[in-house]
């Protein structure tokens, strides 16, 4: 249920955020493009005005013509040049007088450029653009106001984005709750039903099992009594598993978790299962890092390790070795349980953690397995903010648990 809520929240949050980000980016691109095209258009217009008609005018007449024209869109300055690229005339096409800053930039451009070109630098980082024609003219547009305007617009957009993300976060939480509430109610009802039904079945089953023990067994009824005992044991095992599953799915109070020596917990679990491993003709090899401390529920971690070792024993080839490794890696605590046996079929490594899922499609009753153990293990690991995953290759299957060491 927790994963469903997170996925729903991140989906809604991502879609709305992406729409807002794209809208802001498009708006800023359009604003930048409008300013860029305006500068380019006016620089080109100045090019035509300075060049004039095909027949070349005397430089004095050109100076008089330019002095009469005023361009209001941007702050433009024109510098007429002689054949040696020396400035002969300086013209301001706006109310602002030429200052040393513009003159210095003009001299710098003329000294470093040898070919004619229109140069529009990044409007976010440069405060001038120009149109230079060697031995003819240099037209400079002061883009400092544009730069300030675009940067202000960019900062305002970022502020709006941050503010919008806060609103989107709140709205996404509300929408997620609204969407998942019916699912959560159904899930809780299902969970309560499993728990209640299991409890209700446990009492009559206990009476039945006690009554069977009191029945006098003879040659005529031995077969039937044994069958009843076998099926009663199976039902009792299933009910116990269902109760464990219901418990693992309940909200856990993490305040009750205590610091425990995880290394010793795993070592003790391995010792418990050595006799079972011996009966199944497999051995267990351990590499456990000493004194790994982890805040957890000891009983629940005991159960997880037991489920995984039991699972490894039952799925191992005869005379193979099961490896149990516990170690720290950066801020993670990692438990690997590796067995040598048949690979998990491709595409089923995630499905095996689902309730009642088994790779054995025949559901052989003799194995007395219900597909609940790994589901219980996953719930317990999730309750400890950890991850559990399985991967299988070349007849080696690894179950890996990763806990964050806080």
How does this structure look, described?
By secondary structure, this protein is of the alpha+beta class. The protein folds into 2 domains: 147 residues; 150 residues, Heat Shock Protein 90 (2-Layer Sandwich), CATH 3.30.565. 53% of the residues lie in helices and 19% in strands. The strands form 3 sheets. It has a 5-stranded antiparallel beta sheet, with helices on both faces. Helix 4 runs antiparallel to helix 5 and helix 6 packs parallel to helix 7. It is elongated, with a radius of gyration of 39 Å. About 3% of the residues have low confidence.
Summarize the structure.
The protein is an alpha+beta fold and 406 residues long.
Comma- or semicolon-separated keywords:
Heat Shock Protein 90, single chain, 12 strands, 5-stranded antiparallel β-sheet, 53% helix, alpha+beta
Share in β-strands: 15-25%
Q: Could you list the spans in which at least 5 consecutive residues all have pLDDT below 50?
A: 53-61, 362-366
Mean pLDDT: 81
Q: Write the CATH homologous superfamily of the largest domain.
A: Histidine kinase-like ATPase, C-terminal domain
Overall SS class? alpha+beta
Report the helical percentage: 40-55%
Please report the number of helical segments: 8
- CATH architecture grouping of the largest domain: 2-Layer Sandwich
Large-scale geometry = elongated
Termini Cα gap: 24 Å
Whole-number tally of structural domains: 2
Number of strands: 12
Fill in the CATH topology of the largest domain: Heat Shock Protein 90
Spell the H/E element sequence: HHEEHEEEHHEHEEHEEHEE
Task: Name the CATH class of the largest domain.
Answer: Alpha Beta
């Amino acid at each position: 249920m927790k994963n469903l809520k997170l996925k729903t929240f991140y989906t809604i949050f991502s879609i709305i955020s992406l729409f807002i980000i794209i809208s802001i980016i498009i708006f800023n691109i359009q604003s930048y493009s409008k300013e860029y095209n305006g500068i380019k258009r006016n620089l080109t217009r100045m090019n035509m005005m300075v060049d004039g008609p095909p027949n070349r005018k005397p430089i004095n007449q050109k100076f008089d013509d330019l002095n009469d024209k005023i361009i209001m869109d941007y702050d433009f300055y024109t510098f007429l040049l002689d054949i040696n690229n020396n400035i002969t005339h300086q013209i301001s096409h706006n109310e602002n007088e030429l200052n040393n800053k513009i003159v210095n930039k003009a001299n710098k451009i003329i000294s470093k450029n040898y070919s004619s070109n229109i140069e529009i630098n990044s409007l976010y980082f440069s405060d001038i653009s120009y149109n230079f024609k060697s031995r003819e003219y240099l037209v400079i547009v002061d883009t400092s106001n544009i730069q300030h305007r675009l940067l202000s617009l960019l900062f305002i957009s970022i502020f709006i984005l941050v503010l919008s993300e806060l609103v989107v976060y709140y709205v996404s939480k509300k929408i997620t709750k609204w969407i998942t509430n019916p699912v959560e109610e159904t899930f809780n009802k299902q969970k309560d039903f499993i728990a209640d039904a299991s409890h209700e079945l446990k009492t009559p089953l206990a009476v039945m099992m006690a009554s069977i023990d009191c029945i006098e067994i003879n040659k005529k009824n031995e077969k039937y009594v044994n069958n009843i005992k076998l099926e009663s044991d199976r039902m009792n095992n299933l009910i116990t598993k269902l109760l464990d599953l219901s418990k693992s799915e309940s909200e856990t109070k993490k305040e009750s978790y205590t610091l425990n020596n995880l290394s010793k917990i795993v070592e003790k679990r391995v010792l418990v299962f050595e006799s079972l491993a011996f009966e199944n003709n497999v051995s267990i090899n351990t590499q456990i890092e000493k004194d790994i401390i982890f805040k957890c529920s000891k009983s629940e971690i005991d159960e997880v390790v037991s489920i995984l070792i039991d699972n490894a024993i039952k799925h191992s080839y005869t005379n193979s070795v099961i490896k149990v490794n516990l170690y720290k890696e950066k801020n993670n605590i990692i438990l690997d349980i590796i067995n040598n046996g048949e690979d998990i079929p491709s595409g089923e490594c995630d499905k095996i953690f689902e309730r009642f899922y088994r790779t054995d499609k025949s559901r052989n009753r003799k194995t007395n397995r219900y597909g609940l153990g790994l589901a219980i293990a996953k719930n317990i690991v999730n309750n400890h903010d950890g991850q559990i995953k399985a991967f299988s290759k070349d007849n080696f299957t690894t179950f890996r648990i990763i806990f964050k060491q806080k």
